Amino acid sequence: MDNKRQFILNLFASLISFAANLGIGFLMTPFIVQQIGAEAYGFVGLANTMINYATLFTLALNSVSGRFITVAYHKGDKSTADKYFTSTLSSNLVIVAILTMIAVPLIWNLEHVVNISPHLINDVKILFSFIFINFLLSTLSTVFTVATFIKNKLYLSSIANIVAILAKVLILIAMFGTLPPMVWYVGLGTCAMTAITFIANWIYTKKLVPELRFIRHGFSVSAIREMLAAGIWNCVIKLQQILQDGLSLLVTDLLISPHFMGLLSIAQLVPTTMSGLMGTISGLFSPEQTKFFARGQKELLLQELKSGMRICGFFVNIIFVVLLIIGEDFIRIWQPGQDTKMINILMQLTMLGFFLSGVATTLQNVPLLVNKLRPYSLGWLACGAVSFALIILGVHLFPSSGIYMVAAVPQIVGFVANLTFVPLYASRCLNLPLWSFYPIYLQYITSTIVSIVICFILHSMLMPKITSWISLFIACTIYTLTTIFINIIFLLSSRERSLITRKLITKIKK
Question: What is the pTM of this model?
Answer without folding.
Answer: 0.65
